[in-house]
Amino acid sequence: MRAIVMLATLILSVSMLTGCQSAGYKAINPAEYQQLRANYDITFGWNQKTGPDSLLLDGYAKNNRYFAVNDLTLTVSLLSQNGTEKATTKLLVHPSELRQYETAAFVIELPLKPQPGDILRNVYSYRAVENGEDGFFWVNNFEFPATP
User: Could you tell me the keywords of this UniProt record (predicted)?
Assistant: First the structure.
């Protein structure tokens, strides 16, 4: 009986340790992303896919700088050539805490197909924790062509 309990415990332990693999988890490989923006704090990589009436950004964010980045939020806006906002989408990246050098995947869909000359603006914000402090709130942004 004791051998059966030990065998069951071993099987349960192995299945728990391989949970990510058996659930289809795929590690983020930065080389698979066509676009890259490496800021001092966060690196973003993404692929853009245009549908008949939408734009999809499939990407990742990596914490380059701080002990932890909490509540990373992305606000992506599609702008016309003259800066008029055409569409905006906001996303809270999961997991909500990224330790230094950790990455998290994200998918953002804008409900409008970009036109030549349109621009995408990514405004990102987070709460950084460093040196055992309470942390601080940070906001930054960058722009890039909506049609690569």
Answer: Signal
